[in-house]
Amino acid sequence: MWAQDEAGPYQAIPQPGASWQPAGQPARQPHEYLRGGTAKLLTLFHPATGEVRARPVTHAPNTVLHPWLKAELAAVVARLPALSPAEAAVRATNAYWEQWRAGLTVKATLLQDLPPLRVLLVFDNLTGHHTPELLCWLFAHGILPLFTPLGGSWLNMAESVQRILARRALDGQQPTSAQDVMAWLAATVRGWNTAPTPFVWGGKRQQRRWRARQRQSTLDARHALGGSGAVTHRPLPRRARRPSVYERLCA
What is the CATH architecture of 2-155? Predict the structure, then answer.
């Protein structure tokens, strides 16, 4: 199972961080309104391993998102282990595909000749994700998109990892252009993939908050992630913060 989302836009302006003002000085906010451009992060996330496939871009229309997504998903499917003939025959049946869509009120029409189902793709319910050309391509490559309900994007764990990546890349920094933002996001993704953290689904928000209260008095070692229902069984390692422009000038 993989999850996909587009994060942003992230503005090329001074980003708030954790108290990076000079010692003895109050925190100040910039008063200039500088238009340095914006950047977005196309993200494909594998919760079971924590692997992130991402691409920083300045904008994300279908003409940018769809080619990138197809290339990444084709690579994902290509590296999956081969199925036995019997298993492939079972997974290529309409009934096997339909069991993953049980209970849905709106369903895209499946292809008449289906390949073996190999990947489940969690998608936000955006209009651009429902284009017939994209859906037919996904079905033909053994990929079944499962759309989050309207107002339920928090069910997509890609949003959890995007919050972590954006915070690590931008908090306390002062980018002056979209290229700065894109370069820092790309570097953060590379660093993440050197030691990825698997995410585990932990239920609805209300249940997650209840467990968080219980963890205060128990030895449960699960850690909530962002604003979604995902948890991890080990804490995320804290990486060294990149010094701000002010700190680099004063060094």
Answer: 2-Layer Sandwich (3.30)
Q: Take residue 219 and report the two structure tokens written for it.
A: 């030895």
Q: Would strands 2-11 and 119-123 be described as parallel, antiparallel, or unpaired?
A: parallel
For the chain, which residues make up each domain, given as ranges? 2-155, 198-235
Per-residue pLDDT of the chain (251 residues; tens, 9 = 90+): 888 888 878 777 777 666 656 677 776 666 666 677 889 999 999 988 999 999 999 988 999 999 999 999 999 999 999 999 999 999 999 999 999 988 887 788 899 999 999 999 988 888 888 899 999 999 999 999 998 877 777 778 888 889 889 888 888 777 888 899 899 999 999 999 999 988 877 655 556 667 666 665 554 556 666 666 677 777 777 666 666 655 666 55
Residues constituting the chain: 251
Global pTM exceeds 0.85: no
